[in-house]
Specification:
Length: 213
């Protein structure tokens, strides 16, 4: 992946330099001129034999240089083809990367929308929690009041139990006293003096009725 920027930079100028083609063209022109010169020298005869050998040497060197330039040009064309293939691969990688980036952005947008929805739900739950807290505080206050009322009722119940116990004690004492008086009354009614004074009591009751009427 680190070669991407360098290859992309080379993609901007993938073709071989123009001076190589121009140099090859100049060499070819020199070869043509050299051949023309050879033909001229051949016409001059033996006097130009030394000069011809020199020109042939120059011609061979030029031919060798031309071959080297042709090889360099072929190599540059191969490099250009390789760079074109790499550039095509990089364009494909960039296309796939852009699609993945767009998909990631779409997923991120959906995730952000879900996050906002979750935040709204959390805010609603927070409001409900505050309401429940208020309700709980009210219920706790009411429970405290009910507990206090319960304690007061228990205290009142204990007081009533004490009063009831006292009333029962008093009632038992009164019942005992009534029973004692009952016995005394029965004993008195059974006595002779009670029977003897029956007429007197009847007269007293008749006089009382007369006075009241």
């Amino acid at each position: 992946m680190s070669r991407g920027p360098a290859l992309h930079g080379r993609e901007m100028n993938p073709r071989p330099p123009d001076d190589s083609a121009e140099s090859l063209q100049r060499l070819r022109e020199q070869l043509i001129l050299a051949q023309v010169k050879i033909m001229e020298l051949e016409d001059d005869g033996a006097a130009g034999a030394g000069r011809l050998a020199e020109v042939e040497a120059l011609l061979a060197a030029a031919q060798n240089l031309a071959d080297q330039k042709a090889d360099a040009l072929a190599h540059l064309e191969g490099v250009h083809a390789e760079l074109e293939a790499q550039a095509q691969h990089l364009r494909h990688v960039q296309h796939v990367t852009n699609e993945a980036l767009n998909e990631t952005r779409a997923r991120l947008g959906a995730a952000e929308a879900r996050l906002r929805q979750a935040e709204a739900q959390i805010a609603g739950l927070e409001g409900q929690r505050q309401q429940l807290e208020q309700t709980r505080a009210q219920l706790e206050a009411r429970i405290a009041r009910l507990e206090e009322a319960g304690r007061q009722l228990e205290e009142r119940g204990r007081q009533l139990e004490r009063e009831l116990a006292e009333a029962r004690t008093t009632a038992a004492a009164r019942a005992q006293r009534i029973e004692q008086l009952d016995g005394e009354l029965r004993a008195m009614k059974a006595s002779r003096s009670w029977r003897w004074t029956r007429v007197v009591r009847a007269v007293e009751r008749w006089l009382a009725r007369r006075r009241s009427s």
